[in-house]
Amino acid sequence: MMIVMKPEATEEQIAAVADRVRSTGCSAHVSTGEVLTVIGAIGNRDRVQALGLEGVAGVDHLVPILKPYKLASSQFRKGERSLFEVDGVEVGGGHLTLIAGPCTVEGRDQVLEVARCVSDAGASMLRGGAYKPRTSPYSFQGLGREGLRLLQEAKRQTGLPVVTELLDVRDVEDVAEVADVIQVGARNMQNYNLLTEVGRSDCAVLLKRGLAATLEELLMSAEYVLKEGNERVILCERGIRTYERSYRFTLDLLAIPALREMTHLPVVVDPSHAAGRRDWVGPMSMAAVAAGADGIIVEVHNEPDAAICDGPQALATEEFAGYVQQLGAVSAVAGRETAAAV
Ligand code: PEP
Ligand code: MN
Questions:
Q1: What is 2-55 written as a DSSP string?
Q2: Structure confidence by residue, pLDDT tens digits, 89-109
């Protein structure tokens, strides 16, 4: 149930309503928009209804949320899109966020060189995995804590917020100390304990769509994070598995307008893992921006041919500035503000 407060409702009235909701055993999520405050009451709807909140001071009206995802639904924000800051970078609300960096942190020179390149070209955040989910247990699994330390150094040098993946709840403290955004990878989209844990952290969360997940399942996973009180969730379309084998995954561009209808959360697109080939990354990035994506997360490497992981899909540092310029041109046509220096 969504309780819409009157524009003139006082903080005391909002707190009193939230307390009454909690007294039923339901949880109350207060969301303050530009004009209105809404309280999401999650739990037994009948008990909330029995409170008779319609006549209570400060309450305007009640709206039942019919979708199984509540806090993630666009209804919860009354159609207003999420906009939040990640260490000074605005995400959502018409901004185009460009997250770029290597698939995995391989060493000091590599990560610092790539970080400097993407920062100079105008990227808004740095990506890089210290813990890698690999299909084969014999493949490189990431530098772990050493990788996190190098990301921290890259952040200190460039000022870019860091996006890095968390694979295991046992590493949440180490990762949260360095990350501004914790990535939950496609393979962990339905790892509910992990989602709950990142929901309790102070970091924003980049939630990637599972290889065979529906959009509703993606939003149910986002709900796990939101339910813990973490409102800074970014959804990521990264390609899904279909019968088509000509490319790594099928980039589901229709997920962008569909999700924009279903949810208020920002949607970014990862063209790298979908394409699997760097020459397809540019066209898919431009298509994603034109379709309304709130951002792009893209892999970049200083020596793609020698990369330990995902080299064929990584843009080379030398071509990155040109890529950013192309994106800037499309985003201008699409009416999007880009943080990129183009
Ligand atoms: C990644 O971003 O490097 C990654 C492993 O992505 P995904 O979980 O989408 O495969
Ligand atoms: Mn990768």
A1: EEEEPTT--HHHHHHHHHHHHTTT-EEEEEE-SS-EEEEEES-HHHHHTT-GGG
A2: 999 998 999 999 999 999 999
All domains in the chain, ordered by first residue: 2-64 (3.30.70.1140), 83-339 (3.20.20.70)
Centre of ligand 1 to C-alpha 239, Å, is 10
Ligand 2: distance of its center to the CA of 89 in Å?
Answer: 23
Query: What amino acid is encoded at 271 in this protein?
Result: P
Which residue has its alpha carbon closest to ligand 1 atom 6?
185
Q: Which atom, in ligand 1's list, is nearest to the CA of 186?
A: 8
List the residue whose alpha carbon is closest to atom 9 of ligand 1.
Answer: 186
Whether the full predicted model's pTM is greater than 0.85, yes or no, is yes
Can you list the positions of beta strands (E) in 155-256? 162-165, 181-184, 204-208, 233-237
Q: Which of 251, 204, 219 is nearest to 92 (CA)?
A: 204
The first and second tokens of residue 56, run together, are 């209570």
Whether 307 lines ligand 1, by a CB cut-off of 6 Å, is no
Q: How far is the CA of 101 from the centre of ligand 1 (A)?
A: 12
Listing from the earlier edge strand, what are the strands of the sheet with 37-42?
27-32, 37-42, 2-5, 59-63
The answer to whether 18 touches 28, Cβ cutoff 8 Å, is: yes
Atom of ligand 1 at shortest range from CA of 129 = 3
* Tens-digit pLDDT profile for residues 178-217: 999 999 999 999 999 999 999 999 999 999 999 999 999 9
